[in-house]
Automatic annotation (TrEMBL):
Gene3D superfamilies: P-loop containing nucleotide triphosphate hydrolases. GO terms for biological process: DNA restriction-modification system. Keywords: ATP-binding, Helicase, Hydrolase, Nucleotide-binding, Restriction system. This is DEAD/DEAH box helicase. It comes from the Bacteria. Residues 60-145 form the Restriction endonuclease type I HsdR second RecA-like helicase domain. GO terms for molecular function: helicase activity. Residues 326-345 are annotated as: Disordered.
Length: 522
């Protein structure tokens, strides 16, 4: 249980007597891997068909006295159930003729069966681990009594059982209810093949950069929008790897997998290598794309599997070994001149993706810069395509442009705006809205007036935000009240009217909605 069941999931042990339950509990406490609890009836109640007079067994009497005491049986049982549902420390409950019917805990993932169960009692017991939960793909039945051999007969007679009012389900409802673990792990070859099919065309599957290139974000312009053409392939990879890992987990929990002659030791080693290699690749790609890595559901579920079964597996490369544990981390050599051609192209694609996201998502507060850099990006992409045979030159080109984008450096934006992002955005509003005026060469004095006006607007917006932080409508009303006379006066001198003034105000408010100016400075 400790080795194979994820930490947030739980289990039940059904045994045939109170004495067995108490001794199981004592043993589990001595081992000390996790906390368990017993749920059973008082010692003066006979159970099943036993002929033992439990009142004469001091071991049972003593346990009840020490653990239940003066509580009623119902209060004690209710307390254990509540802890089992809510307390992560209580991971397993030991039951004797209790909780095998009518008790539902979705986190319950495994039932250990050490007692006779027949017909509807057997079906009800199975249902205890068959409730849906995000962290479990299936429930496990571990049979110490050989009773699951009767399960096919039990299911075949379910019409008769339904007539006896023990469930009333349609037989179709329970079709495929269970399967042997061997049935599950025999899917491994097909899942393994489907997983590697995603990398069809890769010449060397041991080459990390070739595998990475298949999944790297690759931004291409389609219908005027930059889209990641590898997005679906990454999603397919994540799904295929999750299915393969889940199946391998079942296999490695099963003794039958290691005794099955249809799988060789080489097969088992290959599956482990694949899991380790592609799990590490998955982590690297998710870091490349800025997606969640460390605490996502897959990582949590597969961590124990990797630690227990795959920790010592080495993944081979054509020119030696690479450290799988360091996959996904930033490279130790930061000299692009030393990179392979494949790695250089991968890093170039990463920069291209970062810039696209930066322009599309991080420049909502500066419409002019967003528009200008989008146009420049298209030009850089076209230039890079002409340099396809020179991957290092492509990388250098995109690296230089990324620095320009990060610093929002545009030729027609004065350097005085460095570190004053919203003031720069307001100046960009002038360039965009009053293009007819700015298309004529401005004198230094005229240009300085526009710079001063941008900073003045920035001050007005800052003041409105601070004084009306609890009310956006009041904030916007204050900005309009201050800006309308200011821009009307400016327009009379510069040659634009109220309509343009209103247009500028609306764009200023849109920039203000993107976030407080002071949080973006510097």
């Amino acid at each position: 249980f400790d080795n194979n069941i994820d930490k947030d999931l739980k289990g039940m042990l059904a045994c045939d007597s109170k004495l067995s339950a108490i001794r199981y509990k004592r043993y589990l406490d001595e081992v000390g891997l996790f906390e368990s609890a017993i749920v059973m009836s008082p010692p003066d109640t006979r159970e099943g068909h036993t002929e033992v007079d439990e009142r004469k067994q001091p071991e049972i009497q003593d346990w009840w006295k020490n653990n239940v005491g003066s509580q009623s049986e119902d209060d004690y049982t209710r307390g254990v159930i509540e802890r089992f549902e809510k307390d992560p420390d209580l991971r397993l409950i030991i039951v004797v003729d209790k909780l095998l019917t009518g008790f539902d805990e979705p986190k319950n993932a495994v039932l250990y069966i050490d007692k006779p169960l027949k017909q509807h009692n057997l079906l009800q017991a199975i249902a205890r681990v068959n409730r849906l939960h995000d962290q479990k793909k299936h429930g496990l039945l571990i049979d110490y009594r050989g009773i699951l051999a009767e399960l096919d007969t039990t299911l075949a007679r379910y019409d008769e059982l339904a007539a006896e009012n023990v469930g009333g389900y349609d037989p179709k409802d329970i079709a495929g209810l269970y399967s042997q673990m061997s049935t599950e792990y025999r899917e491994l070859p097909a899942l393994h093949k489907a997983l590697w099919a995603i990398f069809e065309g890769v010449k060397n599957r041991s080459d990390l950069q070739q595998l990475r290139a298949v999944l790297m974000p690759r931004m291409v312009e389609e219908h005027g929008q930059m889209v990641d053409v590898n997005l679906k392939r990454r999603d397919d990879f994540y799904e295929a790897l999750t299915k393969f890992a889940a199946c391998l987990k079942v296999a490695l929990q099963s003794v039958a997998f290691f005794e099955d002659t249809s799988f060789t030791e080489k097969d088992r080693a290959t599956y482990k290598e694949t899991l380790k290699q592609l799990t590490s690749l998955r982590q690297m790609v998710m870091q490349d794309t800025g997606e969640k890595v460390d605490f996502d559901q897959y990582a949590e579920q597969v961590k124990k599997l990797l630690d227990r079964h795959v920790a010592g597996v080495k993944v081979h490369e054509s020119e030696g070994l690479y450290a799988v544990g360091k996959m996904g981390q930033k490279p130790e050599d930061n000299e692009p001149e030393t990179w392979s051609e494949e790695k250089t192209r991968n890093e170039t694609d990463l920069i291209r993706t970062r810039m696209t996201k930066m322009i599309d998502h991080e420049m909502q507060d500066d419409p002019y810069a967003k528009e200008a850099f989008s146009a420049l990006l298209r030009k850089v992409i076209a230039e890079a395509e002409s340099l396809f045979d020179h991957p290092l030159k492509q990388f250098m080109l995109f690296q230089e442009f990324e620095e320009q984008v990060a610093n929002r450096k545009l030729e027609n934006i004065p350097t005085v705006f460095d570190g004053h992002r919203h003031a720069q955005a307001y100046y960009g509003v002038f360039l965009k809205t009053l293009a007819a005026i700015f298309n004529h060469k401005q004198t230094d004095e005229e240009n300085q007036r526009w710079i001063d006006l941008a900073f003045e607007i920035d001050t007005i917006v800052d003041k409105a935000v601070r004084e009306n932080s609890l009310s956006r409508p009041d904030m916007e009303k204050a900005v309009k009240k201050e800006l309308l006379p200011l821009l009307f006066s400016t327009g009379q001198k510069a040659g634009f009217g109220v309509d343009k003034a209103q247009e500028i105000i609306e764009q200023v408010i849109q920039i203000m909605r993107a976030g407080p100016a002071d949080t973006l400075r510097g």
